[in-house]
Design brief:
alpha/beta; Rossmann fold; 2 domains; 9 helices; 15% strand; binds phosphoric acid mono(formamide)ester
């Protein structure tokens, strides 16, 4: 994985993903080290973020590295019309690895092609969010004791939700059965369903949530993403399509966990937060250990 960019979850093999999970477990046991001493990590966020940016930065701080970057392109020379090519080539001169979030699909791949240092995709439009997927796999393995043969229910915006795209691809190596719950026009895109078809993965599509969480090992809820809608009326129509409440957890499997990449709006009611099934805040914490593992592997330090 040394010097490899991570743009799509498919850039890492199944074995490499499992190696990241093993490393993350070691960082969880021993999160404060100085292996990044002398290394500079650039975090370029052209779109808002709380968890991804701050967990990367926390990971770097705990490992003794330094961070440069921006949280808003308007404070960079992009606001003067600088191209992504010029921005990346410049920042690559100042850093050992670039972590980038950008609203345009394909921007991270482009950045990786013009950068002399590895690029880690922290989310490109509705396309991919591979580091979220690795922390999701880590969270699933931690809570279920395995990744194989699980029943995974993905709920919400499956069309624009980049986290579910990367996650469905990654889990396809572990013989899952999927239930996809979404409004009709926010269904999982064809390209991902074809990917699953080619790998012989079973999935069913539904509009109704309540009955379809009963057999799930993991219920992975996503936000309906207002910022991806071109028509605000369409957003208004579906924004509260699913609201998971404590009462819906009755009769679910004892090992079931509720995950969410966060941020949430209304799709998980706060009355779920104190249940044993709620896992989303621990999931976000797991992002620190997983991102420590990703940085250490890509920088060739482990
Ligand atoms: N899960 C996630 O990507 O959250 P942020 O948008 O806060 O980074």
């Amino acid at each position: 994985m040394k010097n490899k960019s991570l743009v799509s979850i498919n850039d890492f093999t199944k074995e490499e993903c499992l190696r990241i999970l093993d490393l993350a477990e070691k960082f969880e046991a021993n999160p404060v080290q100085d292996i990044l001493k002398g290394k500079v990590v650039a975090t370029l966020f052209f779109e808002p973020s709380t968890r991804t940016r701050l967990s990367f930065e926390s990971a770097v701080c705990k490992l003794g590295g330094k961070i440069i970057g921006f949280t808003d392109a308007s404070s960079s020379s992009v606001s003067k019309g600088e191209s992504l090519n010029d921005t990346i080539r410049t920042v690559a001169n100042y850093s050992d690895v670039i972590v980038m979030r950008h609203p345009i699909e394909g921007s991270a791949r482009y950045a990786s092609e013009v950068s002399k240092v590895p690029v880690i995709n922290a989310g490109d439009g509705a396309n991919q969010h591979p580091t979220q997927t690795l922390l999701d796999l880590y969270s699933i393995k931690k809570t279920q004791g395995k990744l194989e043969n699980l029943n995974i229910c993905l709920v919400g915006d499956l069309k624009y939700g980049r986290t579910v795209h990367s996650l469905a691809m990654a889990l396809s190596d572990f013989n899952p059965s999927f239930n996809f719950v979404s409004p009709k026009f926010l269904q999982m895109p064809k390209e991902y369903k074809m990917y699953l078809d080619n790998k012989g993965v079973k999935y069913d599509e539904h509009e109704e949530m309540k009955d379809n969480i009963k057999n799930a090992d993991i219920v992975y809820v996503t936000r309906i993403q207002r910022e991806r809608f071109s028509d605000p009326i369409e957003y208004e129509r579906v924004k509260n399509a699913y609201i998971l409440r404590k009462k819906h957890l009755e009769g679910t499997k004892p090992n079931m966990k509720v995950m969410h990449p966060l941020p949430r709006v209304n799709e998980i009611h706060p009355d779920v937060d104190d249940t044993t099934q709620a896992y989303y805040f621990t999931q976000a914490l797991n992002g620190v250990y997983t991102r420590q593992a990703i940085l250490a592997a890509i920088l060739g330090l482990v």
